[in-house]
Write a structure and sequence with these properties.
The complex is a heterodimer of chains A (520) and B (98).
Chain A (H helix, E strand, L loop, with lengths): L11 E2 L2 E2 L28 H4 E2 L2 H7 L7 E3 L10 H11 L5 E3 L12 H6 L3 E6 L5 H7 L8 E3 L4 H8 L6 E6 L1 E2 L5 E2 L14 H6 L2 E6 L19 E4 L6 H5 L9 H16 L8 E3 L4 H17 L3 E8 L1 H8 L3 E9 L2 H9 L3 E3 L2 H5 L13 E5 L2 E3 L4 E2 L15 H7 L2 E5 L3 E2 L2 E2 L1 E2 L14 E4 L2 E4 L6 H10 L7 H12 L7 E10 L5 E8 L3
Parallel strand pairs in A: 3-12, 4-5, 4-8, 5-6, 6-7, 7-26, 8-11, 11-12, 13-14, 13-17, 14-15, 15-16, 17-20, 18-23, 20-24
Antiparallel strand pairs in A: 1-2, 9-10, 18-19, 21-22, 24-25, 26-27
Helix pairs in contact in A: 9-10, 10-11, 11-12
Chain B lengths: L6 E3 L7 E6 L6 E7 L2 H18 L5 E7 L4 H16 L11
Parallel strand pairs in B: 3-4
Antiparallel strand pairs in B: 1-2, 2-4
Classes of the chains: A alpha/beta (520), B alpha+beta (98).
């Protein structure tokens, strides 16, 4: 069948029954109450909760073949927890697990691929599978079902509907007490917000907190409460602070990125929504950080204050708060060390549940109030569809993150990208993988021009505001032609019929699939 | 035109191409290409290389190209330089105006 973004998708993929993406919609009434595996059970004394090592905790949880385990990815590439846990599981001879972290970051030596090859893991669900694992998956790595990729907002929903039912959640924390109160805000390996793990802590059957920093009871601040935690384990090292994020993300000097960032800030400042109390999400990366700095200057010049910044935080956003240009920060993730530590220092910088941030099936989520959302992309096509997963050779290059959620939730969603990267065009006829429907994208900003989406709900308003500010726009076709004139038209990547990944949209429908790349 | 000496042009920097042009007397054209964009542009790169060889009248050569995502103009220019060096000729700057 063909879904609402024109993608050919089978009705069933193995045991997975496809609900095709059917276009934008409001959240609907659910028939069932929220699913949780949490049991009312008392772990009597502190000694019973603090386990001597990982193996004892895994055994105490009763982990068996075929069960589902989860992790958060807030330690990013500095994560040392996932490999330690998987190595213990492997030593215990437990096989065929479903691995369901919030995202897979590029973990090496050993990589997740090694745990798939030895049979420890045979199914994977995450928001993205960057690095060695992703490359192996699109090349046909043997798993018992396709990888399910979900944006941040869809994961909590899948957990609450029972589609993703977690047996054991392993939650890394940079500080914890012996009763399991824990946080990522303090300690040598601080990663900041633990927002992804809140849903795991309340809905998994077993919750294990892993730390290298046991603090005296009670752990203050506490992000995840002892009332959800079964066991606490102290290990030697939970992460590498250098890779978790050292210092603030720096301002780029790349003139192309600065130009795109400046144009993006120009658009926000030209909008009628840019007034006292406006809200924004900029995200991580060179362009977003530069864009935040430009936005801060515009805010100061206008003599106004933003009400909140949302989602993943950087030092640049903290700086804006310190300058009095931003009243509050709702952090579901901290992208650098400055942002990670700031939560504990400033009362208006708060850690939020990832579900509160992006889950459209909540009674409300913070994205419902967002004015401006700045997004990165690997590719955009002439229907404004966005690819944030796969490179043009079909290789796995990114994760969904909250991109599809933000595009849909924000009044004005702004996609920033250069029109070419090396010889690869980024504005194309048809994206290789559709992750975010074009209908939710308001504007595409490149070094070669700004294209407004005439089909976006706020097109008329934005067009009027940009015209009034004298900001020129071009058509998306113009940008594509410009890109192709530099690179030539790429030959499409050939795939086999085997589906390696199912890409879900924020409402749990299937927006696209990724098929195995055909190699010579 | 005959290749008198081996020529190496270009670098392995991103967005450049390194090309080695070697003699191959009586054996025609042999083109080996490594490229980070081989899937999308492999055929286009080989076509450009062949076209430049033809414009120099080179019928026998071994071309070993390592592409790092160079744009077509870069590939063409590198290839022209390789042909000039290998054949010991000067580039015909008037050629493109004719």
């Amino acid at each position: 069948m063909i879904n609402a973004v024109g993608r050919e998708i089978p009705e069933k993929i193995g045991n997975y029954v496809v609900k095709p993406y059917a276009g934008p919609r409001e959240a609907i009434e659910a028939e069932q109450p929220v699913c949780s595996r949490r049991k009312p059970s008392k772990r009597a004394a502190a000694e019973n909760k603090l386990m001597p090592d990982l193996k004892s905790a895994i055994q105490a949880c009763g982990l068996k073949d075929g069960m589902t385990i989860s992790f958060h990815h807030s330690f990013r590439e500095g994560d040392k927890i996932i490999v330690q846990v998987l190595s213990c599981i492997k030593e215990l001879g437990i096989k065929g697990l479903r691995f369901a972290p919030s995202a897979v970051v590029n973990i090496k030596n050993p990589s997740i691929v090694d745990f798939v090859k030895d049979g420890t893991i045979n199914r994977i669900q995450a928001s993205g599978i960057c690095g060695e694992l992703g490359d192996a998956v699109v090349d046909g790595l043997e798993l018992s079902e396709p990888v399910i990729l979900r944006p941040h907002g869809a994961r909590p929903h899948a957990i609450e509907t029972g589609d993703l039912s977690i047996d054991v959640a392993f939650i890394g924390a940079s500080a914890a007490d012996d009763f399991g109160n824990c946080t990522g805000q303090i300690g040598p390996n601080a990663c900041g917000s633990l927002g992804y793990s809140f849903i795991d802590s309340t809905n998994a059957e077993n919750v294990v907190v892993i730390t290298d920093n046991i603090v005296p009871f009670p752990c203050v601040p506490t992000s995840i409460s002892q009332m959800y935690v079964d066991y606490v384990v102290k290990v030697d090292e939970i992460g590498d602070p250098k890779k978790i994020g050292a210092g603030a993300t720096r301002m780029t000097k790349n003139p192309r990125d600065l130009l795109i960032a400046q144009r993006c800030a120009d658009i926000m400042a030209a909008s009628r929504l840019f007034k006292d109390g406006y809200s924004f999400q900029t995200g991580a990366g060179a362009i977003p950080v530069a864009c935040t700095n430009y936005l801060a200057d515009y805010t100061e010049q206008a003599g106004i204050q933003a009400s909140f910044a949302l989602g993943g935080m950087t030092g640049a956003i903290v700086e804006m708060h310190k300058r009095g240009l931003l009243r509050s920060m709702l952090c579901s993730q901290s992208f650098d060390a400055v942002a990670a530590r700031a939560i504990a220092e400033y009362p208006n910088i708060v850690e939020i549940d990832n579900s509160m941030y992006a889950n459209m099936f909540n009674k409300s989520c913070a994205l419902d109030k967002l004015n401006f959302g700045v997004l990165g992309a690997l590719e955009v096509d002439t229907d404004f569809n966005i690819n944030i997963l796969t490179g043009s050779s079909g290789e796995m290059m990114g994760g969904l993150g909250g991109g599809p959620d933000v595009a849909d939730g924000a009044d004005i969603s702004i996609v920033t990208l250069p029109i070419i990267r090396g010889r690869i065009p980024s504005v194309v006829d048809k994206v290789f993988t559709c992750c975010t429907p074009g209908s939710s994208v308001a504007v595409v900003v490149t070094e070669a021009g700004i294209a407004l989406n005439p089909k976006h709900k706020n097109y008329e308003m934005l067009k009027e505001d940009l015209d009034a500010a004298g900001i020129k726009t071009v058509s998306i076709e113009y940008l594509r032609d410009m890109a192709y004139s530099l690179t030539g038209v790429p030959k499409p990547v050939e795939t086999t019929d085997k589906i390696t990944c199912i890409v879900e949209y924020r409402d749990g429908t299937v927006i696209d699939v990724i098929r195995q790349i055909k190699r010579d | 035109m005959e290749i008198k000496q081996a020529a190496i042009v270009g670098t392995l920097e991103s967005s450049d191409i390194q090309i080695s042009l070697l003699p191959n007397p009586g054996k025609g054209l042999e083109i080996q290409l490594q490229s980070v964009v081989k899937v999308q542009y492999g055929d286009a790169i080989v076509a450009t290389i062949t076209e430049v060889l033809e414009s120099f009248g080179i019928t026998d050569a071994i071309v070993d190209a390592a592409d790092r995502g160079a744009l077509d103009w870069v590939i063409r220019a590198r290839m022209q330089a390789a042909c000039c060096r290998a054949t010991g000729t000067k580039f015909n700057w008037k050629g493109e105006d004719q």
